[in-house]
Amino acid sequence: MIVVNAIMKTNDNNFETIKNAVKELEIRTREEDGCLDYAFSVELHSDRIIRITELWENLQSLKDHLKTEHVAHFVGSLSDDPPETDAKFYEANQIDYPG
Length: 99
Known about the structure:
The structure is a single chain. The chain is of the alpha+beta class. Helix content is 33%, strand content 32%. It has a single domain (2-91), classed as Alpha-Beta Plaits. It is built from three helices and four strands.
């Protein structure tokens, strides 16, 4: 399984643009083959930090996702004022609850 953990630092100018662009991206991405989970969330202590969490069956599924029209549209919608984004990619195995 591939895990993506990303943080976007937004500002007053691009937050609403991102928020509006995310809806279609989330809906279409969740329909993709290999997508196990895909979510954007806003931190409670700072509404200008957006977290992106993705789970993919395998690396090829993620690579295919990054080539889709809806990803290109999302990235294009941010081109005027792109947020600072830090994304990390991990290969992982699911385990049972350790407690």
